[in-house]
Amino acid sequence: MQRVLVVDPSTAAVRLLGDQLRHVGNVQVFSAPTIEQGWGMVRTVDPQMIFVEHSSAGVDGLALAKKIRRSDLACRQAPIIMCTAEATAEAIFGARDAGIHEFMRKPFTIKDLERRLEAVTLKPRDWVEAVQYVGPDRRRFNSAEYKGPRKRKADAAGTPAARLSQALRIVKSAAQSLDSDPAQARRALAAQAAELRAVGEAVKEPRLIEAANALSAMTQVEVTGAMARAELVKRIDVLMGFMTDEGNGRAA
């Protein structure tokens, strides 16, 4: 970690966090007081980690996080840690749903910071590339404080059936968003095509591999015109044939 961006209107808060980060490691700290300037620095600095204020004068951390996650920037998957003095349930769940990696209440200690840094660097979470949500797996949000088991039954085993079911649900949602959110729908389809190919290889299902490859190839080209869109939908429909009525994949 060499480049860190801090988006916070408070000069004192930026200075304190910068001092703590330098104590942890040799990093270059960039700062911005507003969401507009923060977005500009995200595009030019290519930060490896981002700290954002939840909500303050000139800063809407949730909006900035969502914009980064849904962009084509190289840093779109960089860890984002939200800092705020208002650690309400609404703020915490809002951060989770915006694609934030960790949540940290102000004032925080160097130990609090170290725990969040450890969580995002040493305990990475799976990346979810959907349409309604883009970011790290929300089921283990704020993992620096997480102590219990993963909450969904399918998580424990990580079965091909569970992976297949989730990927197909995202593909279905992306197909429904081809007109309303074409850029993110295309990113989601490309990511799930790769996941479905991996599942097909794991269960040795050539038909699934072939269908996933066909979808992947279609996401690599510009889909314009009725014929191209119809072909994309056709390839999606082939994959939907692997989903059961209950939403559970056939690969077991």
TrEMBL record:
Residues covered by the Response regulatory domain: 3-121
InterPro entries tied to this protein: Bact_response_regulator, CheY-like_superfamily, Sig_transdc_resp-reg_receiver
Keywords carried by this UniProt record: Phosphoprotein
Database matches in Pfam families: Response_reg
One annotated GO biological process: phosphorelay signal transduction system
PANTHER family: RESPONSE REGULATORY DOMAIN-CONTAINING PROTEIN (PTHR44591:SF3), STRESS RESPONSE REGULATOR PROTEIN 1 (PTHR44591)
Protein name: Response regulatory domain-containing protein
Lineage: Bacteria, Pseudomonadati, Pseudomonadota, Alphaproteobacteria, Caulobacterales
